[in-house]
Write a structure and sequence with these properties.
Blueprint lengths: L31 E4 L5 E7 L20 E7 L1 E10 H4 L6 H27 L3 E3 L12 H13 L7 E6 H7 L3 H4 L8 H4 L4 E2 L2 E6 L14 E8 L3 E16 L4 E14 L8 E7 L2
Parallel strand pairs: 1-10, 5-12, 6-8
Antiparallel strand pairs: 2-3, 4-11, 6-9, 7-8, 9-12, 10-11
Length: about 280
């Protein structure tokens, strides 16, 4: 139990505990995941392009001579934990362990997303500048269209595309008529306050994260990413798990959530399936 739990004693608060607002994992199923149990690294194979040649009668077959390469993800261990003291538990009228399970589980979920964001930041993909759609602009339809154009030019499949953006970028996009008007889209974005898909992208919105979140620099340039599922790989040697164990020496329960994983941009070139979008926040 956190040392500050005494502030929630029954004499001060009622039975309902409100946890601090926190995000959960959002990128699950949107990236290429591989079971890496028992491994410290995971290698994602990459096969180069090939071209067909003319076949003439009785000629030898000409091999394409395809090139093979690998992208390696290194496993890193992560844990989020907190103690639930049995004496302090007797002074509160809520289930402290249950609240802690939700809290540490959320922390681990966000960290799994951050591992993927860090891999995107480390890539050298195609880029969309903040000058697209106007000088020093936030996210707009022109930038999303440009990101789609670059993926299309690289022959990236139209399905399983994700657009990862910050909540501030979503607010800017909702100010675009082409993103909200029924003349351009069937989505009721302004009524729902959200936008699930646009121009073939599944839109994932992240808020501010203590883990780092989507990078922003001193000029208020925030990074967003458009990527295909196969372009970002994550090896998981230990799946996310949460345990509650009694520790006699602490007279407390230890609530801990943990995982071991590593992520890598498999297509780490300007001709790959990742596009970095720069958005100037105002």
């Amino acid at each position: 139990m956190a040392l500050s739990v005494s502030t929630a004693f029954t004499t001060l608060f009622d039975a309902e505990v409100k946890q601090a607002y926190q995000a959960q994992r959002k990128l699950a199923g949107l990236i290429r995941e591989r079971d890496a149990q028992g491994a410290t690294t995971v290698k994602f194979p990459k096969l180069g392009k090939g071209a067909a040649t003319i076949r003439t009668p009785q000629s030898d077959v000409v091999p394409i001579n395809a090139t093979y390469s690998q992208a390696t993800a290194t496993m890193v261990d992560w844990i989020a934990s907190e103690y639930s003291d049995i004496f302090n538990q007797s002074h509160v009228n809520f289930n402290d362990r249950q609240e802690l399970v939700q809290m540490v589980g959320g922390a681990i979920g966000r960290r799994m997303d951050q591992v993927c964001i860090d891999a995107l930041d480390a890539a050298t993909p195609a880029t969309v500048a903040n000058s697209i759609g106007g000088a020093n602009t936030d996210l707009n339809v022109d930038k999303i269209r440009e990101a789609a154009k670059k993926l299309n030019a690289n022959n990236v499949p139209a399905d399983n595309r994700t657009l990862l953006i910050h909540a501030n970028s979503l607010a800017a996009l909702l100010g675009e008529t082409q993103a909200t008007s029924v003349d351009y889209t069937t989505a009721r974005a302004l009524m729902d306050g959200s936008l699930d898909t646009y121009l073939g992208f599944k839109i994932i919105v992240l808020g501010n994260m203590d883990e780092g979140g989507l990078t922003i620099d001193g000029s208020n340039d925030r990074l967003a990413y458009a990527f295909h599922k196969s372009a970002l790989g994550m090896g998981i040697s230990m799946q996310n798990q949460t345990r509650v164990d009694y520790i006699p020496e602490k007279t407390s329960y230890l609530v801990a959530s943990m995982f071991s994983a590593g992520a890598i941009a498999v297509e780490d070139t300007t001709a790959g399936g990742i596009v970095q979008i720069t958005c100037r926040e105002t």
